[in-house]
Amino acid sequence: MTDWLSPDEWRAVALSLRVSAWAVAASLPFGLLVAYALARWNFWGKQVLNGLVHLPLILPPVVTGYLLLLTFGRRGWLGQALEEWFGIVLAFRWTGAALAAAVMAFPLMVRAMRLAIEAVDPRLEQAAGTLGASRLWVFVTVTLPLILPGIIAGVILAFAKAMGEFGATITFVSNIPGQTQTLPSAIYSFLQVPGGETQAARLAGVAIAIAMAALLVSEWVSRAVARRIAGS
Amino acid sequence: MTLSVQLAHRFPGFTLDVEFAAPEGVTVLFGHSGSGKTTVANAVAGLLRPDRGRIVLGGDVLLDTEQGTDLPVHRRRIGYVFQDARLFPHLTVRQNLTYGRWFAPSGAPGAEMGRITDLLGIGPLLTRRPAGLSGGERQRVALGRAILSNPRLLLMDEPLAALDDARKAEILPYLERLRDEVRLPILYVSHSMAEVARLATTVVLMEAGRVTATGPAAEILADPAMAPALGLREAGAIVTATVAAHEEDGLTRLESAAGTLFLPRVAAPPGTALRLRILAQDVMLATARPEAISALNILAATVEDIRIGDGPGALVRLRAGGEPLLARVTRRSAHALDLRPGRAVFAVLKAVSVAQESVGGR
């Protein structure tokens, strides 16, 4: 299993998987909350929030990375506070790579979930209310099952985006082998050295395989869910 | 258990201001579309918060804007059957039916489920999903779901409006059985005279956001003053009768407070209480007992009230042995027969229709 990838390459793949998994898992609750808020609530500053969420999608990734460095770097205001109070350091660590991936993938996640929430008929939720379900129970027993395909789509999209994140990551946490060298950073590094093309090609193949697998799984899961809802 | 409602709400271009009480039985909120019926239903359910109002159900205050009481929807325990069934698509029929039980304060007794599925004829559907059901089946499941949530009041917002006539005919008997067997007060929103005639114990007439009349169904339907609002063609009285005997020539003899009636064979055993609908346009009046006439059903009655319409017609309210009747005659006939309150007449019934199900002695 490991002999067709060198230890360095293997480390990059494993790190990327870990970074992406954490990025998606940690941002999922926030993504769901923001998607619900944008889909259903009316509040002051809704457009500002919407803009902030989507910003990483349109900003040059380098700018996002730079802003992360300013905020969460060891001398950044939030980074300093985190280190002082909780001993958490993000800059130049894999956790920082996960943060960068989460921020970059967030808009895609929120978008997919928001569309799913908007597609849920609020009258079904009203009906659940008249049957005795409180707001929270309505969400858990009606809204959540109905938006499950959207959540899955959002998670897969975000995971794929996190796997491919490069610009913000390399700006924020640099490209340290075994520490912050994710799959894209590794490919980039191999392309910088003479004779690294074969290694880069191998890693590119791995990236393609992971992306395809993710797509197929999401397709299969959302079909299974849709079939359950349609009732065959 | 009585529901008393008092509401005021202002929409852009429409003001709602109603007050009525719904005693036991089926109270039909009747009015044209846009008269505010659904708004009232939503306010009772707690889906809409009115500007001002007070809603009390059997001593429990659901809403009192003056005192700042507003029980949230899920704690009002009002079973709501919507026009569109609103079944949960991701759950089976059985899961839909038991949904409310998860939240009911004290779980409904286990036998209830089987009784309700039998009553509604949805036993064979339990493992199916809503997407595979017909419109009529969906509406019956929605009914069952509302009842099984252990509500204190059933609210039905035109539950038949989205169905074709055949499906309506399929569900109406279930509704009648429900009214008679499930002892729940029911608030029923409708603009169909046929449904009012078959189901209503009490009628609340609404027009442009206001209650114009309220009272027992038989009285409201036989009130000439209400006829324009109810629809002239549909105006008519409701008479309760008991099947006395099935005669040899295929007729069924019925006894009512208004007198003896003969109808083509009614498929109900002797002793069954039936609700008869007698349309005003099917009633002729005579000042002397008609003889040598083919009509079998002739009732002695007294004129109570006459309402002359804008056209050539007049509506006459009669009382026959305590039961109200309504007759539609021409103004010319009303003059010729010298019809006025107190005059004794004979009502000749050209047609009588039967609501097939029992009214449970009400």
Count of discrete domains of chain A: 1
Architecture per CATH nomenclature, i.e. the level-2 architecture of the largest domain in chain B: 3-Layer(aba) Sandwich
Q: Which descriptor suits the 3D outline of chain B?
A: globular
C-alpha geometry of chain A? globular
Secondary-structure map:
The complex is a heterodimer of chains A (232) and B (362).
Chain A: H1 7-40, H2 46-58, H3 61-72, H4 77-86, H5 94-118, H6 122-130, H7 135-164, H8 167-173, H9 183-192, H10 197-230
Chain B: E1 3-11, E2 14-22, E3 26-30, H1 37-45, E4 52-57, E5 60-64, E6 69-70, H2 73-76, E7 78-81, H3 93-98, H4 110-120, H5 135-148, E8 153-157, H6 165-181, E9 186-190, H7 193-199, E10 202-207, E11 210-216, H8 217-221, H9 227-230, E12 236-246, E13 251-256, E14 259-264, E15 273-279, E16 283-286, E17 298-308, E18 313-320, E19 323-330, H10 331-336, E20 344-349, E21 353-355
Parallel strand pairs in B: 3-9, 3-10, 7-8, 8-9
Antiparallel strand pairs in B: 1-2, 1-4, 4-5, 5-6, 10-11, 12-13, 12-15, 13-14, 15-21, 16-20, 17-18, 17-20, 18-19
Helix pairs in contact in B: 4-5, 5-6
Please explain how this structure is put together.
The complex is a heterodimer of chains A (232) and B (362). Chain A is mainly alpha-helical and 232 residues long. Chain A has a single domain, classed as MetI-like fold (Orthogonal Bundle), CATH 1.10.3720.10. Chain A has 10 helices and no strands. Chain A has helices at residues 7-40, 46-58, 61-72, 77-86, 94-118, 122-130, 135-164, 167-173, 183-192, 197-230. The longest helix of chain A is centred in the N-terminal third of the chain and has 34 residues, at 7-40. A 6-stranded mixed β-sheet of chain B has the order 7-8-9-3-10-11, sandwiched between helices. Chain B folds into 2 domains: 3-217, P-loop containing nucleotide triphosphate hydrolases (Rossmann fold, 3-Layer(aba) Sandwich); 236-355, OB fold (Dihydrolipoamide Acetyltransferase, E2P) (Beta Barrel). In chain B, α5 packs parallel to α6 (165-181). Chain B contains 10 helices and 21 strands. Chains A and B meet through α6, α7 and α10 of A and α2 and β7 of B.
